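From the shared-data thread, chain only:
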Amino acid sequence: MLVSRKLSIACGLAVVAVFTLHSAAQAGKCAKTRATTVAARKTAKMDIVDTAVSAGSFKTLAAALQAAGLVDTLKGDGPYTVFAPTDAAFAKLPEGTVEALLKDKDKLTAILTYHVVAGDVKAADVVKLDKAKTVQGGNVTIDATDGVKINDAKVVQADIDCSNGVIHVIDTVLLPQ
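Structure, as tokens:
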């Protein structure tokens, strides 16, 4: 009977050990799954503002968005379609224009919101339109006969997907009528 009891205790300890090892292995798998989920979130698409900033060619646009107080809006849920002028596009404006706009929040906001259309409008949709209503309230004209032009600005890169919309890069700053 003593041998049987020792054998039962040994078997019980073995079961506990196996269960403990299995639980530890499961905990390791859960930790790996959590780490994978966190990594996936980090590699998910960025919002419009973060995408533009990380591109490096929209420093003037980023500064203008900051000055106009529109960063939080364009980091919001959206979706938004942004016709984003590059630094070179802002450089085409007459000397002193950007500096003056950065000091005139109302005018700057009107110009920047003229570059934004509510919704997620991809290039395939843009070419089917002849105009689009902007967040500013005015309309931009769309001409897809020779490439795509938004007013007088040429779309130089289309469909940059973001977590809250899409960016179409343009070569000229759009000015509302």
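Strands lie at 80-85, 116-118, 131-133, 139-143, 149-150, 153-162, 165-170.
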